[in-house]
Inverse folding.
């Protein structure tokens, strides 16, 4: 067997591997039957995962996983809970509700007291509530009133001031 980087040869794989480490300062795969080598240790470590058996295998589709939490999330895809509609009125989600229900538990639904509008983030509700208030942002040039700063910016950009 010959070194892939120079003319060194040996009939023993172990000797070729040792030569690559000593002479070429390479990181060789630590699995004795593998002849792969790298200049970066991290690349070698990533490669070595190929030789390890997956700990978790899906019985339904035979997909393999090394991490239990990823495996468990995958199993939900095969569960019989995929034909339901979310009970939250503002949510249009259909399908796997076991995983989806966690979305609503993380953040409470916020409701506008005036009209019943719902959202999950406070800044959306604050922005929405401005619709119910009288316009109070005025243009310094023409005194026209606006509810939103964005509308005033558009007004100025268009040159609508009289």
């Amino acid at each position: 067997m010959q070194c892939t980087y120079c003319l060194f040869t040996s009939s023993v794989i172990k000797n070729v591997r040792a030569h690559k480490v000593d002479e070429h300062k390479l990181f060789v795969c630590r699995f004795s039957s593998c002849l792969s080598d790298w200049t970066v240790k991290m690349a070698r470590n990533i490669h070595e995962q190929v030789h390890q058996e997956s700990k978790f295998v899906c019985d339904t589709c035979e997909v393999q996983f090394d991490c239990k939490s990823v495996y468990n999330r995958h199993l939900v895809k095969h569960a019989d809970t995929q034909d339901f509609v979310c009970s939250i009125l503002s949510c249009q989600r259909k399908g796997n509700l076991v995983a989806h229900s966690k979305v609503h538990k993380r953040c409470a639904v916020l409701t506008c007291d005036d009209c019943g509008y719902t959202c999950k983030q406070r800044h959306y509700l604050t922005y929405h509530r401005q619709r119910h208030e009288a316009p109070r942002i005025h243009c310094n040039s023409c005194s026209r009133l606006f509810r939103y700063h964005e509308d005033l910016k558009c007004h100025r950009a268009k040159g609508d001031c009289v």
